Each structure stands twice: as C-alpha cells, then as structure tokens.
Amino acid sequence: MESFDTSPNPRGICAMNGSKEMCVFASPHSKEGTIQVIHFDRANKSVLINSHLSPVTALALNQDGSLLATASQKGQIIRIFVTETGQQIQELRRGTDEADIISLAFDPVSKYISCSSDKGTVHIFSIRNDVSLAATTHKQL
Questions:
Q1: CATH of the domain at 91
Q2: Mind listing the pLDDT tens digit for each residue in 76-110?
Q3: Among 32, 35, 44, 129, whose CB has the most other CB atoms within 10 angstroms?
C-alpha cells in the first residue's frame, strides 16, 4: 500500500492512467499548486510539476500516462504537461470569468481534452499534434 501527503484536498482529486504498459499516478503535492506524478513501473520515479499559483481543483492523465492536464481554483486556464519531465507543452483558456472546473478528460488517443464547469458548460479543445508527439518521444526515453 502507498500513501502520499497532499495539500488540502477536500475533493480528493487524483488521477491514474488506464494503460497496461505503464502505471502513472498524479495528485496534489503538499505545496499548493504543485502536482506529484509517480511512475510506478519506473522504480517509483517521482516528478513534481508546478502547475498553478492557486490550488489545483481538477486533473487528468491521458490513457498511456504520458500527459497530465490541470486546472486551478480560478478555472480559466488548463495546462498540459509531459509526465516524464514535467515540461508544460500546451495552455488552453476556458474563459475570462472564474469558474469551478468539475472535471477534465482526455479522449482515448489524446487528440482532444474536455472540461466541464459550474457555469453549465462543457468545452472541448484540440490538443496540438506536436503535444502528442512530444509525449510519445519522452515515453520512449
């Protein structure tokens, strides 16, 4: 059994990918706005990602665990990172009004990401082709 300390996490947010090849877990770190990513199949390699200045309220991993999406309490920006390195590779703007992002989800091949919020809206964004390519390149290292 594994146990990880987090910053205040009233929603209990965390994510785990759905791949048979690699097991990746992500959750808020004890430092607010930072996410800890653990690659269990790589000798528990841990990467800390400074994703936002305010608390993270939603996160998602893509199916193979190579990409992480995060949203903060402000709910305006979604950031996508390579889990292997923590490098930010795309930033998406949901809107200018603050919103509570309820969920983030990648499609099975990481071509799109969706987010839903308390504004009664769902946004679907295209993920740039070079983002998926960057994740694949890092995964092969």
A1: 2.130.10.10
A2: 899 999 999 999 999 999 888 889 999 999 999 99
A3: 35
Residue 97 in domain: yes
Nearest of 122, 77, 79 to residue 102 by alpha carbon: 122
Number of domains in the chain: 1
Q: Look up residue 55 and give its amino acid.
A: P
User: 49 has which bridge partners?
Assistant: 35
Tens digits of residue pLDDT in 53-82: 989 999 999 999 999 999 988 888 999 999
What is the Cα–Cα distance from 141 to 112, expressed in whole angstroms?
24
Three-state SS annotation for 29-48: CCCCCEEEEEECCCCCEEEE
